[in-house]
Write a structure and sequence with these properties.
438 residues; nine-stranded mixed β-sheet; two-stranded antiparallel ribbon; 29% helix
Length: 438
């Protein structure tokens, strides 16, 4: 976040939430053979039992990032009729004894699929530090920049059988190749962002070029890349090749961006608003086999008029989130997709002079569902006023242990190698939240 003078308004501005962006290379990238199991020569192996077993092993992640800070008191941990509780009621859910905010009536019906953690206690209360710290898991300082969770999963689990980009980001605004997410892993493990869910520009082959000419050009580029890679760091040359190969793959998977394929019923269920459209595209990416899909929602930094803001924002989130949970459960995908919905921190219980809630990392909540997790439960609690955690506090490092474990990755036995230096994938002094692990 930019520095603030004493005369500046205490409210955040849109500039405080801007991320650096890099345009996707590959304007003239060439085509590649079709992705998928059939194209990989595995079609003959796909007897039903074998196919089901492979699907079980292909675990995926849907990471829903609510940028700016969703209020836990207006969502997962309501405190009605208390000093700081606000005007909204708590409502019953599909799990007896568990209540959430009345602003989430559709999600309440899906509670039997969810696991809520109400005892997050993190440290950074600024966006500039909090966003990166939360998405990197806040490992110990080892003199290197750790990867975001999406990049970590991309590195540790790979793209899978789909051969699609392992880490895609569906977000408002512009897209591009966000190499910064990868940290020391190297730029090829960064996020491929689709601005407004749209494909990269110039994805189609020019009409003036034939398929044969395109193939010849690709072969030439491959040979030149091999020559370029000699004597250079593999992280750099590998990233260059990855960007072009990714573009080739996407040229043959243009249907992933075809919103006309969605039924009118699905459009209405998810919502025609931004997060609804993007969540529906995210579902399509998961169905196609993308390993890690991040869906972004901006505008949650409610320093002013918090209650009206959440009255506007929460129903959109509720509609899109409940719809994708329902669909993933109905299709059986929830058995191998880990769903995480969270912000960089929560909001203050105390209401400020602008009738808003400020940043509050001391006691907040997130929601999860899917593979490796128990369902229909709440872990942790805050005190009666919602001011502090009243059970074991969980820092973000604990959640990284939890998520890796849910994906079948042992965070105590798995390491990164950075130029030969072994590094832990999660904070070595923290542990998984075992109460939610199946």
């Amino acid at each position: 976040m930019a520095s603030r003078s004493s005369a500046r308004s205490p409210l955040c501005t849109p500039a405080d939430h801007q991320w650096s962006r890099r345009r996707l290379l590959g304007t003239a990238a060439a085509s590649v053979g079709a992705a998928g199991l059939g194209a990989a020569g595995l079609g003959g192996l796909f007897q039903p039992a074998i196919g089901a077993e492979l699907v079980k092993k292909e675990r995926q992640v849907l990471f829903i990032w609510i940028d700016g800070g969703m209020s836990q008191l207006e969502s997962w941990d309501p405190k009605p009729n208390t000093l700081f509780g606000g005007p909204f009621r708590a409502i019953r859910t599909s799990v007896p004894g568990i209540e959430i905010s009345e602003l989430m009536p559709q999600t309440a019906k899906q509670m039997h699929h969810l696991a809520i953690v109400r005892s997050l206690c993190t440290q950074d209360n600024s966006h500039s530090a909090g966003v990166a710290r939360i998405q990197r898991g806040d490992p110990k300082n080892r003199g290197v920049t750790y990867p975001y969770f999406g990049s970590a999963v991309s590195k540790l689990m790979g793209p899978g059988e789909s051969q699609l980009p392992a880490y895609v980001w569906i977000k408002p605004g512009s897209g591009g190749f966000i190499h910064e997410d990868a940290g020391f892993l190297g730029p090829q493990y960064g996020a491929l962002a689709f601005g407004d869910g749209k494909p990269p520009e110039n994805l189609l082959r020019p009409d003036s070029m034939t398929a044969d000419e395109d193939s010849i050009r690709h072969a030439l580029r491959d040979r030149l890349n091999q020559r370029y890679a000699q004597g250079r760091r593999p992280l750099v040359s590998g990233a260059n090749k990855y960007v072009f190969d990714t573009a080739r793959t996407l040229m043959h998977r243009r249907e992933l961006f075809d919103e006309s394929s969605f039924s009118q019923r699905d459009r209405q269920r998810y919502g025609t608003h931004e997060i609804g459209r993007h969540m529906l595209i995210g579902r399509k990416m998961l169905e196609a086999g993308v390993r890690f899909v991040k869906v972004n929602s901006y505008g949650w930094d409610t320093h002013g008029d918090n209650f009206n803001a959440h009255l506007n924002l929460m129903p959109k989130f509720d509609q899109a989130f409940s719809a994708i949970i329902e669909d993933l459960a109905a299709s059986g995908m929830l058995d191998h997709v880990l769903v995480i919905a969270m912000s960089e921190f929560g909001r203050t219980p105390r209401i400020n002079g602008h009738i808003g809630r400020d940043h509050w990392p001391e006691a907040w909540s997130l929601a999860m569902a899917g593979c490796g997790l128990k369902r229909g439960l709440v872990v942790g609690k805050t005190n009666a006023k919602g001011t502090f955690v009243d059970s074991e506090p969980l820092d973000i490092g604990s959640m990284f242990h939890t998520w890796f474990s849910a994906l079948g990755i042992d965070p105590h036995k798995t390491e990164y190698l950075n130029n030969g230096q072994p590094l832990p994938i999660a904070h070595d002094d923290q542990h998984a939240c075992t109460e939610v692990l199946a």
